[in-house]
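Q: I'm writing up a methods section and want to include an example of the input and output format. Could you take the sequence below and give the corresponding predicted structure tokens, formatted cleanly so I can copy it straight into the document?
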Amino acid sequence: MSEFSSLGKFFIILGLIFTILGLLLHLFPKIPLLGKLPGDIYIKREGFTFYFPLVTSIIISILLTIILNLLLRR
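A: Here is the clean output for your methods example:
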């Protein structure tokens, strides 16, 4: 029974994180500097646009790793 209990706790925490993230994105649709950091790849040519937020992805990954490690620490 403890296996399902810990899995349930994980899904509740994950749901709360998604809810908070959804509220933040709804309230602040354009977060300053997010997606426009140095190191984000943006190529614009005639008839072609390529955008890859490399540094933004790394920063979000680091923040989520820290938050999840703090929340899921046993």
